[in-house]
Amino acid sequence: MRLRKVVDGNVRNSRKRIPKPPTVAVPTAAGGGFQIKRYHRKNYFESEIAASLRMLEAERKDFMWFRVPDTNMASMIDNRIILVKAPSDFVVVFGGRPYLIECKSQSRNLASYSLKYIRDHQLEYLLKVEECGGRGWFLLNDRSTNPITAHALHPQVVDEWRRSMQSVKWKAIKEVGVELPRFHVDGKARWDLHRLFCMIKVV
């Protein structure tokens, strides 16, 4: 039932209006213009990784994955929801072995990646899963380059960097990390993740 109140002699609906998300201009597929869409703080890299994991799940019977909900996802439903800190963006089980995958993306044209975006609890969880016989991966995505690149890093490497520096050159990331090839399916970007799980790609 709607509640009503009197303001300046007028009866008004007291239901609180939820502000609409801001809008953003998104280039059309044909590249000939822009389309105005509601912006929900979508992480395009995470969406691409999720779709890529879905492809692997369809390819192999001994592979499963799920996306760990976080506050950013919950805020799309209600911005008052705050969830506990998630260990990683994705949890994967393949061949009886658990994997934690944390995605990081940078769209600004910078020579370095700031390590402050890698949170303490994320690093702790990825290091812990390795101690328990699993595997942890940080996926660092540079969207300012053409072509767009992504490299996977072991948590031990990230831990060593964070102990001695505040940021790391993208050149160093690309030298040390495992490069993930990018491809397209029906015009949508996907990533070849077979290397993360020591898989033989099924052709």
Task: Characterize this entry briefly.
The chain has 5 helices and 14 strands.
What's the SSE blueprint?
Layout: E1 4-7, E2 10-13, E3 23-27, E4 34-38, H1 44-59, E5 63-67, H2 71-75, E6 90-94, E7 97-106, E8 112-114, H3 120-131, E9 135-142, E10 149-153, H4 155-164, E11 167-169, H5 170-176, E12 178-179, E13 182-185, E14 188-191
Parallel strand pairs: 7-9
Antiparallel strand pairs: 1-2, 3-4, 5-6, 6-7, 8-11, 9-10, 10-12, 13-14
List the secondary-structure elements in sequence, H or E.
Answer: EEEEHEHEEEHEEHEHEEE
Question: What is the number of helical segments per DSSP (H or I, 4+ residues)?
Answer: 5
Sheet with most strands: strand arrangement: 5-6-7-9-10-12
Q: Helical percent range?
A: 10-25%
* Annotated CATH topology: Trna Endonuclease, Chain: A, domain 1
| Distance N to C terminus | 58 Å
- Rg, alpha carbons: 21 Å
Q: Can you give a write-up of this model?
A:
The protein is of the alpha+beta class. The chain has a single domain (41-197), classed as Trna Endonuclease, Chain: A, domain 1 (3-Layer(aba) Sandwich). The chain contains 5 helices and 14 strands. The chain has helices spanning 44-59, 71-75, 120-131, 155-164, 170-176; strands at 4-7, 10-13, 23-27, 34-38, 63-67, 90-94, 97-106, 112-114, 135-142, 149-153, 167-169, 178-179, 182-185, 188-191. The longest helix has 16 residues, at 44-59. It is globular. 20% of the residues are buried. The model is unreliable at 1-7 and 18-40 (pLDDT under 50).
